[in-house]
Amino acid sequence: LSQDPSCGKPSRGQKPKHVVLRIMQKLDIIKHLEKGENKNRMMQEFSVGLSAICDIKTGKAIELCHTLRKPKLEQLDKILYKWFVLKCSEGAPLLLCVCVRTHTHTVYCFVNLYIYI
Q: What's the domain of life for this entry (predicted)?
């Protein structure tokens, strides 16, 4: 069987396909980097470019997954949190409503929670 040497590689002037790595793959790349392994071999193994390897090395790729945003109604959020802590410290039950939707059904489940802080 003959194999095309350009298979899996973009030709000159073309962009490589977009590859999204899972967290475990990123952790594997970090382990390989710590061992001092060749970046070119990792680029081929994970089908990513050098910039992706460097982003993972500097931590940019993992930090992007964990960006936190401020709530739109920050004051309301603070007041609601204070109320929640107060009710939990009193031992009052909180009613939790869970809504599960599928393409054919909607199911509501109500649960009393007792949270002690």
A: Eukaryota
